Amino acid sequence: MLEFGRTGQGEVLFAEFAAAYSLGMVRHLAQDPQAPHTVELGEKDFLTVAAQESAATLDAGRPTERLLAAAVRSMPMMVMQKFHNLRGDTAVPHTFYELTGTGRQRVVRLTPDLLRLAQSDQAESLAAELDARWSIVESCFAAGVGRSLVEEGVAVDWDTLKITDKRRRRSVAGIGEATVGFQHGRCLICDDVLSRKDAIAVDHVFPFSLMRRFGSVGSWHGPDLDALWNLAPTHAACNGAKSDRLPAQEELARLAARNEAIMRSPHPLRRTLQLSLKGALPGRNLASWTEFLGAVQTAV
What is the pLDDT of residues 5-24, one digit of tens each? Predict the structure, then answer.
């Protein structure tokens, strides 16, 4: 949808839409599975057909007729009718498309909301975030540890700026790509848009130097500052200028809002932040990220 919306196309023939979807799925299938190992797929299931038609599709650079037919058959019910629904059958407040017509005249009509989003300053960061979310889900399926990623949360490899699953230490997605959408595509420090052309850094909002500084005179009794709750994408220039100063109040407010947004979503990183909020400050039962960050700030 974003690709079509970026060009300003308000209407797309459903067959053309299904072809783009099929090719994207096959390309992902070549890297990782698209369903848990425990799921039994039927012979006519779209993912079964995609696996069987993968080689021919990739060689041609377009879906085979059999794969396209499977997509056209399955997408309306399995994908498109479910797209606007959230947990508990709650519908999103803004729809992004509607499917109209029948047969070869069936059309996907993109709404003004989708077109505005696809052509906005946030479109590039949203595309990167979507890739990151997809990578997290694929890694769950490939490792066969989907439940552990959801229940145990993920770890952060600071050396590579990658999110990893705790059990296998397998790289899942970049920290910035996975979280920038929850910051509305903006730098946590200056609050301006993060563009693909900008040099991006991942900032320790509470500087990691605090742990070394306290460790040199006694011990650090605060939470792990290398954890996801304290890491946020920023402009590299903003990050460099900030150095190891403590965060300003507006930065803490943006970090709290970002963490709360992740926890309100079905995102796989949600559990990681739940665990941090519950256990990162032993003996403290804090109900919100505003309280949590305030407690950390008081401690330093």
Answer: 988 888 999 999 999 999 98
- For residues 93 and 50, the model is more confident at 50
Is the domain of 18 the same as that of 74?
yes
The domain of 132 spans: 123-299
Q: Give the chain as a DSSP string.
A: -HHHHHTT-SEEEHHHHHHHHHHHHHHHHTTS-SS-TTPPPPTTSHHHHHHHTHHHHHHHTS--HHHHHHHHHHHIIIIITTTTB-GGGPBPSS--EEEE--GGG-EEEE-HHHHHHHTSTTHHHHHHHHHHHHHHHHHHHHHT-HHHHHHH-EEEETTTTEEEETTT--EEEEHHHHHGGGGTTB-TTT--B--TTS-EEEEESS-THHHHHHHHHS---S--TTSGGGEEEEEHHHHHHHTTPPPPHHHHHHHHHHHHHHHHS--TTHHHHHHHHHHSSTT----SHHHHHHHHHHH-
Question: Structurally, how many domains does the chain consist of?
Answer: 2
Tens digits of per-residue pLDDT, 206-249?
A: 998 887 665 544 566 778 888 889 999 999 999 999 998 999 99
Q: Residue 21 is which amino acid? A: Y
Check whether 144 has a pLDDT greater than 60.
no
Check residue 52 and give its pLDDT. 92
* Same-domain check for residues 134 and 73: no
- Final residue in a domain of this structure, among 118, 136, 153: 118
Pair (261, 280) in one structural domain: yes
Of 78, 99, 118, which closes a domain? 118
Q: Are residues 179 and 280 in the same domain?
A: yes
Residues 258 and 159 both lie in one domain: yes
Q: Is the domain of 136 the same as that of 109?
A: no
